Amino acid sequence: MKTPLDALPHPAVLVIDMQRDFVDPGAPIECAGARDIVPAVQDLLATARGARVPVIYTREVHRADGVDLEMSNDEPAHCLEGTGGDEIIPALAPLSGDYVVVKRRYSGFFATDLDLLLRSLGARTLVLTGAATDVCVRATAQDAHQLDYRVVVPRECVAGTTEARHEAALQNIDYVFGYVAPVSFVSKLLGG
Q1: Residue 176: inside a domain, yes or no?
Q2: Residue 84: its pLDDT value, please?
Q3: How far is CA 173 from the centre of its chain?
Q4: DSSP assignments along 18-75, one per residue
Q5: What is the Cβ-side half-sphere exposure of residue 84, based on CA atoms within 13 angstroms?
Q6: What letter does residue 84 receive in the DSSP assignment?
Q7: Of 7, 3, 1, whose CA–CA distance to 125 is shortest?
Q8: Is 41 exposed, middle or buried (0-12, 13-18, 19+ CB in 10 A)?
Q9: CB atoms closer than 10 angstroms to residue 39
Q10: d(Cα 160, Cα 36) in Å, to the nearest integer?
């Protein structure tokens, strides 16, 4: 049985893949509602930075020839080096003191130094924001859980590939991998 969410011990905030190829209108994998979550993510980041909570971005990046794209028959080429689609959207650009982790797969942990970075920062609770709830956010939540991090997802700070997949992923995360909570509640726990 899950304990109540009443504190965020040793938190870090992750901004997952808020990149042009997932957020821009007409993007190869345009996530439903991704542009709509930007103000809530901005507010959460301001709270986190004000409380000196580390902010870490993930960027999905694939080689220009697509050789390392995920094995999927349904996904178009995306986040290729040199196309601009792999860039984090300007409205959520990292600030000085933030961290950026480049990844080639869905999970922010797979074949990256994210776990090492988090342990070096002393993080034990991860607040996950970004896109897509049903792909990279969920994969990162699962791996975080397996590595014994506490996972919290502010509902208004994530967007999925479709609304139905988004809701299903939130239910799955809340059931087994962590907590899904209103952003106002998470901000308050972060110190806002």
Answers
A1: yes
A2: 96
A3: 13
A4: -BHHHHSTT-TTPPBTTTTTHHHHHHHHHHHHHTT--EEEEEE-B-TT-TT--S-SSP
A5: 3
A6: S
A7: 7
A8: buried
A9: 12
A10: 12
In a domain, 128, yes or no: yes
The pair of structure tokens assigned to 41 is 């993510």
Q: Is residue 3 part of a domain?
A: no
Please state, in angstroms and rounded to a whole number, the distance separating the CA atoms of residues 171 and 9.
23
The CATH number of the domain where 74 resides is what? Answer: 3.40.50.850
Amino acid symbol at 71: M
Q: Which domain holds residue 131?
A: 11-190
Strands 55-60 vs 158-159: parallel, antiparallel or unpaired: unpaired
Residue type, 152: V
Residue 192's pLDDT is 67
Residue 1 pLDDT greater than 70, yes or no: no
Q: Write the pLDDT tens digit of every residue in 21-41.
A: 999 999 999 999 999 999 999
How many domains does one find in the chain?
1
> What are the catalytic residues?
136
Contacts of residue 91, Cβ cutoff 8 Å, sequence gap at least 6: 38, 42
Contact 12, 124 (CB under 8 A): no
Average pLDDT over residues 96-125: 98
Measured between alpha carbons, how far is 153 from 157 in angstroms, rounded to an integer?
8
Is 6 part of any domain?
Answer: no
